[in-house]
Amino acid sequence: LNWLYHHYYSIFNMNFSWLIMLWFFFFTFAFLVKIPIYTCHLWLPKAHVEAPISGSMILAGVLLKLGGYGLYRTYIIFKDFFMIFNNYYMMYVIMGSTLASFICLYQSDMKSLIAYSSVAHMGLVVGGFMTLSSISFNGGLIMMLGHGLCSSGLFCVANIMYERTRSRSLMFNKGLMNLYPSLSLWCFLLVICNISAPPTMNLIGE
Fold it and tell me: Which family does the similarity line name (predicted)?
């Protein structure tokens, strides 16, 4: 009995900080893949290109934001580890957002272009979260809401263009302003919302 008592006491007084840190990395990695950030993003353009319009709109407007919300809630549990590793995460996601923005420059497929812009924007959201201030958390949530609305609208406009021309290539969808002026207006409004021009919600978040 004396051995059992001391064995029990030693087990429950061990230092489990390494296990909690392991959980922290597993949780954050899962949500960073879901958001997704650069280097964990390879599934997103393929999913958007292959998915129907309803799937792309739900994926961009709802499902990607679950990763950001999960990261926001995880901060409450692993606050100490976030305070240790937040600078490394911030540098990583901001650099990834910059690289994703450069990838957008040579995209010709409209759905792929919107997908890579989502990677860039969500990386900026995670970078805001990693500053660990209440203002940045509120700004990140506002930006996620605004991005969910405008990216879903952009996918809808891209699908309408595809139904008209049977191509998602930007090379074959030139001069649509003369044929579909109202569609061009909606495309312009959604694009300026996506680039956070005033007075859109994305600008408030950024």
Answer: Belongs to the complex I subunit 4 family.
